Amino acid sequence: MKKVISLSCLLLSSTFAQADILGAKAGADYWHTEDQGKAGSAYVQIEHPMPLLPNAALRATTIEGAANSEGFNTVDAYGYFEILDNDLVSIDLGAGVHKIDGSQHFNDTLPMAVADVEWLPGSTFSFYSKLNYAKNNDATVEDISVGARFNLLPAIHLQAGYRHYQIDTDNAGGHADTVEGFTAGLHIDI
User: Fold this and answer.
1) DSSP 67
2) What is the structure's pLDDT at 170?
3) Torsion from C-alpha of 99, 96, 187, 128, nearest 10 degrees
4) Nearest one of 23, 51, 38, 40 to 121, comparing CA atoms
5) Pure H helices in 16-163
6) Of 122, 56, 112, which is closest to residue 90 (Cα–Cα)?
7) Which CATH architecture has domain 2-189?
8) First to last CA, the chain
9) What is the maximal distance between C-alpha atoms in the chain?
10) pLDDT(151) > 70
11) Where are the domains of the chain?
12) What is the pLDDT of residues 114-131, one digit of tens each?
């Protein structure tokens, strides 16, 4: 019985890519929105070598709002597993919560699914995409980012891309807010 349990644990742990040692990713972006004024986000991810425990991530976004629009803040907190991690592609899948604060149309916490893909990680140029999808009975949120990274120094990357954030609410007759525009910032991977 002990051999069966040991073999099962070994097979389960080998299905997920994992960090050999403790690692971290962090970054910050300026977001040039088309209609919502100044915006930006910061994030941190912690990766560890324990195969059955998810890695942890946190991302905060502030949208200040323009003259005819209201600003709001969001926080994403989630756990994720590295499904694939090699020189061609890195895929992370996870789940967590998306919290919205300060919007006159909606303030709540929604369950969220996350998919994060990076092509050519570790090379001079790499490309990334990230999809966060959150939904409950009152709202649906889609947060999509795509872009490229340039390896400036060891572990430090310049990144630029495009981000599209949309919230559709079903309460109070329904309302939709869309924030989108180009992003630029730093990404650190140690």
Assistant:
1) T
2) 80
3) -110
4) 23
5) none
6) 122
7) Beta Barrel (2.40)
8) 40
9) 67
10) yes
11) 2-189
12) 999 999 998 999 999 999
SS3 60: strand
> How many CB atoms sit inside 10 A of residue 134's CB?
24
pTM assigned to the model: 0.85
Please spell the DSSP secondary structure of 121-137, one letter per residue. TTSSEEEEEEEEEEE-S
Which of 97, 175, 177 is CA-nearest to residue 138? 175
Hey, what amino acid is at 138? Answer: D
Q: CA nearest 63: which of 73, 53, 51?
A: 73
Burial of 33 (0-12, 13-18, 19+ CB in 10 A): buried
Highest mean pLDDT among 30-34, 61-65, 180-184: 180-184
Hunting for tokens 């600003």 — which residue is that? 71
Tell which wins on pLDDT, 5 or 31.
31
Whether the pLDDT of residue 102 is over 70: the answer is yes
138: left (phi over 0), alpha (psi -120 to 50) or beta: alpha
Rounded Cα gap, residues 24 and 185, in angstroms = 17
